[in-house]
Design the sequence.
């Protein structure tokens, strides 16, 4: 019995274990063999990520006859490996894989720290993956803190650049405030209930509703930092501006994934219907996040910051899916969790693609101001076309996948009774779309700097991966059903 | 990935088996053309010619298929067939969410009639593209994408698919407005963008509301959505009506269309004033009336009121214009207000008249817009004061202009006459005063159209216009098919109305509570 449980636990935690082990290899190898090519670490990381995806697949295969969708529960329900956590693992590994494959130009700028960079990428991925399995306050906080610190360190890797160093420092300060808020919030919840298990907390919270609301609000405030939405969202725009675009894409995407997953675990799996305050607070935060991102996007003058604002709006939209985990108007599930996971995958790839395109343009020495993108199509038609597709996917323009994802999230929100929030989200989506469509038009319509440039400064593999992601943005609509099936499977054990 | 639904695709017409990819071809050939064109160079004249030819070929093939399809449907109807849709393609798209979406293409009498119109108009616009000299590849590519979107909207049998195609038109149209056109095109494009995105947002809201609140768990348009409860039905109706009214460009949301009509390149302006407005009207009929019959009935007076104000506003506004394109825009507003009257009347005859008027208006406004572009190209002015006495130099151009004017005002033996006759005879019993006012305003519009034709082509010849050449072979190539369509609809309306009735009857049955 014991050995079978141990084997099951090992198998269930194999993806995270593999990621951490490969991260250690990437971190230690430069110390042992300092003259290795930077490329080597990338391929080690890619192998590690593919291994983690394969391990997740094998866990899923092992669970094929398990209707509950739960692989293993340990520490009195504190750690639950289920379809949800496995879906998140696969999504996070995919995001990291894209980052590894499109970050050549960045890695070339920091050859001596490339091993460290890929180690951090793997560590963040393992952290996000582990976060999705947490239902225990202490490990929940520790995992969140590991992800946050690792992301800040990735931010700080370009230490020779003053702007990047300042942005990383501010990121650290904001992160510290956020982690403190989460810690205080969890401490209050523990003080009220006497338990660190979120599942137990929900049952015991009826005793002190006022304090519980305060604790919940503090935790959610801290999570807005990871998610990259109002109020703790300044790091997103700074990351876009100060960090090379490929890395900024990773920071924003993984931060949002970690924040959204933590929010879902804390709110849906942890507090559920027992503590109504979290749903009200989440709705307010989502609305504020959407409107804030929309207002800032309209005034934005730099492309990377604009993409950051759009990512922020996407992250806020994900909260509508988290909110709609219950029953809908016709007493059947509103499928908010399915919409949440579907949108998480689509949005993640869309943000990474947009930043990867910006990385290609940065490598071609194109400045970052929106005015510098005028007439881009006359200088490099391919770059302009791909960037237009990536941006259109990000704002959810039909027929790209972002549109379907938005539709599902909004439908589940309306079904679950959050019609007003859907109206806010629709208005914000329209507002965010306007500056982006203007940018696209400016690339094709206006005449700016006429010096042609090529995308040749970026290696072929990165360009192929980026172009494939653009094609995937379209295919996500055509092949929505298989993706939905995956998302629905992942959403099953969440509530 | 698209699994076929248990309900097998149906071929409604008796004895005639259409291939089940026919509608897909009509929708997606232009998309394939778009993909091909995007990868072709356009540096030399030869390369640009190749790009234009591909666009024309793709569009021509779609028109050919739509026309053949229409004729076969008519034969099928004559043999006693013809039910809800002449041909369908219905496959599961998504079924793992709280509602099921299908890849459902269908074409009933209304959509088939408009499909033939739109595909023909696109052929003419592609012929006209030989006049476009800059950014040819972009122009053709965007136009092909737009055609996919227009045909897709007309054939969509599922709300999600409808939304996808509806939204697909925004980016290409905005880019075309922004790139090709007059000096104030950027402002016109921005205005269009705001209105178009608002329209998409409203429509998305309507679809989400209906799908989430109906309890049907499907987004298929043929679902039983008209059984929705009062407040939800009213909200869905108003959201969708507002969305389609924006695209339709009716009073009071007509400014974007007038600006776009005025500032866009002639080909783009023709697409906006004919096809985008047609889609707005189609949406009102298909979704506004078909899906929310109770609310449409309840608020029909509001629709008719808007029609009356729009007709008067358009007629008087046209008289105040000096720019020939803005004049066409306001005249078009008055014409489209008649369509709105037909939609608000809720009778089969009026609805059939409204659809036929869409055809007549589409052809007339396209001809006038393209001809005004030709005039501007030759005279370097768009001011009505700058024209005069051109008939001696451009007799054929004047002839086509007068033909378009006659179509618009409804001269017998042309499509406009049949349309207006059916529309007024259908609307009068339902809304007598409103119909009378609209008819009176039509007299103003008619006067304006004739007076303007007189100012351009008759009277003393201006010295600056002493050497103006007549229509070229290229212009004949895109004008003659339009003339043929108007004559076909005008002389043999009986060939079209059975097909149209087949589609309209379903809408009016729902309106009657059947």
Sequence:
């Amino acid at each position: 019995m014991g050995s079978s449980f141990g084997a099951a636990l090992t198998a269930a935690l194999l993806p995270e274990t593999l990621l951490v082990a490969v991260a250690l290899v990437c971190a230690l190898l430069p110390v042992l063999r300092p003259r290795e090519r930077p490329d080597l670490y990338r391929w080690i990381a890619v192998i590690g990520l593919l291994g983690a995806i394969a391990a997740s697949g094998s866990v899923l295969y092992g669970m094929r006859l398990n209707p509950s969708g739960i692989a293993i529960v340990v520490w009195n329900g504190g750690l639950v490996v289920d379809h949800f956590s496995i879906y998140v693992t696969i999504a996070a590994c995919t995001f990291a894989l894209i980052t590894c494959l499109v970050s050549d130009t960045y890695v070339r700028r920091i050859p001596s720290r490339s091993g460290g960079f890929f180690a951090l990428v793997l560590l963040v991925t393992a952290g996000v993956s582990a976060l999705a399995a947490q239902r225990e306050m202490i490990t929940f906080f520790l995992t969140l803190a590991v992800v946050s610190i690792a992301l800040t360190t990735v931010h700080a890797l370009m230490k020779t650049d003053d702007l990047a160093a300042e942005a990383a420092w501010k990121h650290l300060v904001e992160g510290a405030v956020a982690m403190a808020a989460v810690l205080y919030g969890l401490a209050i919840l523990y003080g009220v209930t006497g338990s660190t298990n979120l599942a137990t907390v929900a049952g015991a919270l009826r005793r002190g509703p006022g304090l519980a609301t305060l604790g919940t609000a503090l935790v959610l405030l801290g999570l807005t930092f990871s998610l990259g939405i109002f109020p703790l969202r300044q790091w997103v725009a700074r990351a876009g501006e100060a960090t090379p675009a490929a890395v900024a894409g990773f920071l924003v995407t993984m931060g949002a994934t970690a924040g959204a997953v933590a929010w879902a675990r804390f709110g849906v799996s942890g507090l559920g219907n027992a503590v109504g305050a979290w749903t009200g607070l989440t709705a307010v935060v989502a609305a504020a996040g959407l409107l804030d991102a929309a207002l800032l996007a309209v005034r934005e003058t730099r492309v990377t910051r604009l993409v950051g604002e759009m990512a922020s709006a996407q992250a806020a939209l994900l909260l509508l899916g988290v909110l709609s985990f219950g029953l809908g108007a016709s007493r059947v599930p509103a499928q908010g969790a399915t919409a949440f996971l579907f949108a998480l995958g689509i949005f993640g790839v869309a943000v990474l693609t947009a930043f990867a395109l910006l990385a290609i343009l940065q490598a071609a020495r194109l400045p970052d101001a929106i005015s510098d993108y005028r007439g881009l199509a006359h200088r490099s038609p391919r770059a302009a076309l791909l960037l237009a597709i990536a941006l259109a996917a990000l704002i959810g323009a039909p027929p790209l996948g972002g549109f379907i994802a938005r539709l599902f999230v909004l439908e589940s929100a309306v079904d679950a009774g959050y019609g007003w929030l859907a109206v806010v989200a629709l208005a914000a989506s329209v507002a965010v779309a306007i500056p982006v469509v203007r940018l696209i038009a400016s690339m094709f319509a206006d005449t700016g700097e006429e010096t042609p440039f090529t995308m040749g400064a970026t290696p072929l593999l990165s360009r192929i991966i980026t172009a494939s992601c653009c094609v995937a943005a379209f295919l996500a609509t055509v092949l929505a059903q298989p993706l939905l099936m995956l998302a629905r499977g992942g959403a099953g054990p969440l509530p | 990935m698209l699994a076929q639904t248990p309900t097998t695709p149906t071929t409604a017409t008796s004895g005639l088996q259409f291939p089940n990819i026919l509608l897909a071809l009509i929708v997606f050939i232009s998309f394939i053309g778009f993909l091909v064109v995007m990868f072709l160079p356009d540096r030399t004249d030869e390369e640009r010619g190749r790009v234009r030819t591909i666009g024309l070929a793709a569009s021509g093939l779609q028109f050919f298929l739509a026309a053949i399809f229409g004729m076969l449907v008519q034969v099928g109807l004559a043999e006693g067939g013809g039910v809800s849709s002449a041909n369908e393609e219905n496959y599961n798209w998504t079924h793992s969410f709280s509602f099921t979406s299908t890849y459902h293409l269908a074409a009933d009498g209304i959509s088939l009639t408009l499909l033939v119109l739109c595909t023909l108009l696109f052929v003419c616009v592609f012929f006209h593209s030989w006049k476009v000299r800059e950014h040819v590849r972009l122009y053709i590519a965007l136009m092909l994408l737009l055609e996919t979107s227009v045909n897709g909207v007309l054939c969509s049998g599922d709300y999600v698919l409808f939304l996808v195609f509806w939204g697909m038109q925004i980016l290409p149209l905005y880019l075309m407005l922004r790139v090709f056109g007059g000096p104030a095109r950027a402002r016109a494009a921005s205005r269009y963008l705001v209105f178009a995105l608002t329209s998409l947002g409203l429509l998305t809201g309507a679809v989400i509301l209906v799908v989430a609140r109906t309890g049907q768990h499907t987004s298929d348009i043929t679902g039983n959505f008209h059984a929705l409860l009062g407040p939800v039905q009213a909200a869905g109706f108003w959201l969708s009506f507002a969305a389609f009214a924006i695209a339709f460009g009716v009073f009071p949301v007509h400014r974007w269309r007038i600006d776009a009509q005025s500032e866009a390149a002639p080909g783009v302006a023709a697409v906006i004033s004919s096809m985008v407005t047609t889609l707005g009207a189609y949406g009102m009929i298909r979704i506004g009336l078909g899906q929310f019959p109770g609310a449409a009935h309840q608020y029909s007076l509001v629709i008719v009121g808007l029609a009356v104000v729009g007709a008067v506003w358009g007629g008087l506004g046209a008289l105040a214009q000096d720019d020939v394109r803005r004049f066409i825009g306001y005249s078009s507003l008055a014409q489209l207000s008649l369509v709105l009257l037909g939609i608000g009347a809720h009778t089969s005859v009026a609805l059939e008249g409204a659809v036929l008027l869409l055809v007549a208006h589409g052809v007339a406004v396209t001809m006038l817009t393209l001809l005004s572009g030709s005039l501007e190209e030759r005279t370097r002015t768009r001011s009505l004061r700058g024209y005069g006495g051109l008939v001696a130099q451009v007799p054929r151009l004047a002839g086509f202009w007068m033909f378009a004017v006659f179509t618009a005002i409804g001269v017998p033996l042309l499509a406009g006459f049949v349309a207006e006759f059916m529309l007024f005879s259908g609307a009068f019993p339902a809304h007598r005063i409103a119909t009378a006012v609209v008819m009176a305003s039509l007299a103003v519009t008619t006067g304006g159209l004739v007076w303007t034709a007189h100012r351009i082509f008759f009277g003393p010849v201006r010295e600056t216009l002493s050497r103006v050449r007549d229509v070229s072979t290229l212009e004949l190539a895109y004008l003659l098919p339009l003339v043929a369509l108007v004559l076909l609809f005008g002389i043999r309306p009986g060939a079209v109305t059975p097909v149209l009735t087949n589609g309209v009857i379903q809408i009016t049955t729902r309106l009657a509570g059947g």
Chain B touches chain A through 46 residues (CB under 8 Å). Chain B has one domain: 22-511. The mean pLDDT of chain B is 89. DSSP finds 19 helices and two strands in chain B.
